[in-house]
Amino acid sequence: MKEVVVEVKNFRKTYADFVAVDQISFDVFQGEIFGLLGPNGAGKTSTLECLEGLRKPSAGSMRVVGLDPSSEFPKLKNKIGVQLQSSGLPESITPDEAMRFFCAYHGTTPRYDLLDRMGLTLKRKNQFFELSTGQQRRLALALAVAHDPKVIFLDEPTAGLDVATRVELHTLMRELQASGTTIILATHDMAEAEQLSNRVAILLHGKIERLGSPLEITATGAGLTKISVHSQNGCLASQANGFPAVQQHTNKDEYQIYFSADIGPTVSAIIDFLQREGDPLIDLRVERPTLEDRFLEITNSGGAK
Amino acid sequence: MNAFLHHFSFEFRTGIRNKTLLMMNYLFPLGFYLMMGFIMGAINPLFQEDIIPAMTIFGVLAATLLGIPDPLVNARENGIFRSYKINGVPSFSILAIPAITTMMHLLIMTAIITVSAPLLFHSLVPVNWVNFVFVFVVSAFACAGISVLIGVISPSSRMTVLFSQLIFVPSMILGGLMLPYNMLPAAAGKFAQLLPATQAMNAFKGLAMGKVADFSAWGSLIALLVSGLIAFVLAAFLFRWDSHNTARKGHPLMALLVLLPFVVGILFQI
Prior knowledge:
The complex is a heterodimer of chains A (305) and B (270).
Chain A: E1 4-15, E2 18-29, E3 33-37, H1 44-51, E4 59-64, H2 73-76, E5 80-83, H3 95-106, H4 112-117, H5 133-145, E6 151-155, H6 163-178, E7 182-186, H7 190-196, E8 199-204, E9 207-212, H8 214-219, E10 225-231, E11 246-252, E12 255-260, H9 263-277, E13 281-287, H10 291-300
Parallel strand pairs in A: 3-7, 3-8, 5-6, 6-7
Antiparallel strand pairs in A: 1-2, 1-4, 8-9, 10-12, 10-13, 11-12
Chain B: H1 2-17, H2 19-43, H3 47-65, H4 69-77, H5 80-86, H6 91-121, H7 129-153, H8 157-174, H9 186-192, H10 196-208, H11 217-238, H12 260-269
């Protein structure tokens, strides 16, 4: 049984009369990447800020590596790393200075190698405002992990990054996970969450609507599988819902797209139909529902299970 | 201590690297000093007696009131303080380091003025250098404290400018920098005593320049010192890590307590 490093029990956060988070509970285990998903205003930021010690919960309890973030923050600060959504750095600081500055406050040796790893070798003497958005985000991530924290909070870590840098950051996150670091990832990028997270929590209106692995979450709900078919003569155009288990049909470009509740009979029937019609198959793709599909389904239904 | 030194080192370099701060710490005060030296020296020969303390105080006002508050407000608004808090930067460092680094820049600026003024403008030099440095340090301390307090209580950059100008503009007109204090009408004189610039000018005259102070020079020095202490204590008390956090320990109007030592000074003279 893995150690619980983040424990949230009946956590509630209110701002005057507005309830931002309403009695949520979840645990995060050591070495886990835990995705915190939800539309804007769902309560992700309030949850993160309370876990990071920036705000106090209105009710309930929180423990991060066994410490209460609001009352034991001085002990906690060296055990967590945070990459905020905003830059969080002065305009005139250089990456080298920032590394020295933050590592000094954490009492650790500056990790200039991380700057090189993040592709900032040539920018180490440049001022922060001279860096591109991607470079600023990479620097923020390097600073968040430089003191070797046990738990890392990442708020939209790859927003505004190019593909290569995103891949590099994902590799770094997996390496951190392999070394036992726990990562709590708040993101709007569903593909990223699905690819990286061991488990995700989907927040809606301050409550957890779904909690589980991406596979578990995508397996529930309508669960329709998307089957896209392109044939040479386009004979499928006349067959909208004529195949077994097909519940929805649409078309895009040359493709006929079927949403099936049971892919085996549907695919067999499509192939049989094409053979009977003598229409050669050019392309057939089967895609299970993604986390994004499921997320949209949940948020569009207002959270009804 | 190591962290404090790294923080200090970065902030000190920012005072030169950042164009706005470079302007407030050096270019604006020294440019104004040269302009006033050439113009006022030709119009009013008596200005030669006051050019060193007057331009030193002008530099202090510019670097502190116009240079310190806005970066503090911007840092709070842009989430820099939140980042500092998460990484263990204490609020003491956030408030003290900009004040100390600004005072270091002011020391350099003042040295340039005191060395060049006798050569360029045949100005009167201080007769008591120890007291000159002492008055300078206390004046800079008081103005830095008030500026840090403005940065802490200001809800936005726009309000910061307003609060800073509420002290800066009257200081320029009534603070004894351009117009001698003893030429002011009595009521204006009393009002002027609420300004750190008036108190600093009076202390320079009585304690460092070998002239007769308009009112108690030591009283001015003590009022400046106490006002600076109150300002830093209030700034620490009213400090907020971010603008969204509604929990504040006291009301911003408490900042007016920095004027208390000057009010007491006026009442005691009555």
